[in-house]
């Protein structure tokens, strides 16, 4: 009751005593005591919605107060401080004391929900709570346990905060309306045009082509189109789709754990389970994408360099045009409407954090430097992947040019780049005495952007490069085998397939040794694992791809080349960009601790996958494909469709005559823009 005395000068104390409904609603929305602390539940949220909808004669606000118990070290410390087993007859301080074990949730901290008048400053609320703890007795007073309360403004919310729309929010809404109008207009024109003027289909004016770029019919046909040119690489459709599904599932588990759960002891047990490495070391699935990207870029570039001279600058521009429009749209969404899609006790911390970061640091994302510049306040935490891939792409162009001019020099340069990419993580791990990988412990999951290992090794281009450049070697091999009748014998296929599976399983399961809290830290050992495990994963993935492409792995090939994977694989980029917002939104709006389990996470992940790919389809049809069509028309004026032309990761390469035309007629292209 002490916190309400702050409003005594407004006769609030009199109102409290009146037992009116709104008074009871405010008091009832406030958490009374902690529950489930021994199981690792550190949230008792009260009732967030009831607080903000109490209809009091004053505006209310909901705050999460962090209360920390300063527990002295037990007189008789535990013999095994890292054990998860506690004798029920032990003193409770043994369980509440914070031992040095990062796999265990702190039991001496609780976050409790408070419903107060919005006019109360957080500093006054904090002082009031601390005065309360100083004056009131508790069950642990005899053990000299003291309490310290802290209330951060980021944990306080009022109803009015979620209503306000600023000019940037309105601008995003206007942009969405414009896009919808263009899509409806382009689609309607396409249907009517095909019906009435089908014979003149190839005689569209420039303006008509710009409008037709937004046709849903045209873009959906392109989405489902099968490329028959690279049969050996068709298996990539399935592998890439499975990889993004696993990434979405891993992110679901991580975001759930980072929110309010009441059985964190379940998570603590999983940290010590070898099979949980498929979740906690799921970052390896991202390395699969790096490897495939290096393979495809090398395969495409070498094929083009054999036929014509290509301006590397324009290849980079094409890559930027391919990646940026839909990326910019998602960033714009994060910086505007995303913050208005819900509310909850953790909303300002989880969603509001990305909202503010995207408003402040959007430019680092669009320049693909966000994993180096202001990385501790990155817009969209998972976007670290994109600058890495973009940086590697530029290096790949240089190496492929060297291979074209002097094959031995180019291959030697690629080998040196691989070796350097292996040495860098080893040196960083040893010099800074860091762990072998980024551990998905509570300290990371609750604040990933500012975690030292995320900033030092996990998100940096110079520490994640090995799979990409290993993939470039495989791209070179696929280029050399293109058009040949090369086939792997049955016995050799079985050996490679078995070896690849063993290597992949060994790579991911070996992480269990480092997750084991009893495993002593050794900098050299950690350095070697940090250096080699991503290369091993890439090599194992290439082995599977190699056998499925050229060997006797017919069942595997049939599964991974299933035709529905083709359109899904084209939606992977947009699905990767958008999927996290569904997960963050649920984590942020949780109003009471939830129970976590594998079945629950898998069920939620399946929902995430469906929503992510539906959203990706919308982004593809409304933004990605239309803008790609527009830029193709600007870069290739009056050119026929690129059927039969080779591409670099889906982008047609600019030929010499087009490059010259663009250089000498830049004014014409600018006027069209």
From TrEMBL:
Entry coiled-coil feature ranges: none
InterPro entries: Acyl_transf_3_dom (IPR002656), Nose-resist-to-fluoxetine_N (IPR006621), O2_lipid_transport_reg (IPR052728)
TM stretches of this protein: 168-191, 273-302, 314-335, 384-403, 410-432, 465-481, 493-515, 535-553, 565-582, 602-623
Nose resistant-to-fluoxetine protein N-terminal domain span: 6-146
Keyword line: Membrane, Transmembrane, Transmembrane helix
PANTHER family: NOSE RESISTANT-TO-FLUOXETINE PROTEIN N-TERMINAL DOMAIN-CONTAINING PROTEIN (PTHR11161:SF71), O-ACYLTRANSFERASE (PTHR11161)
Protein name, as recorded: Nose resistant-to-fluoxetine protein N-terminal domain-containing protein
Organism: Cryptolaemus montrouzieri
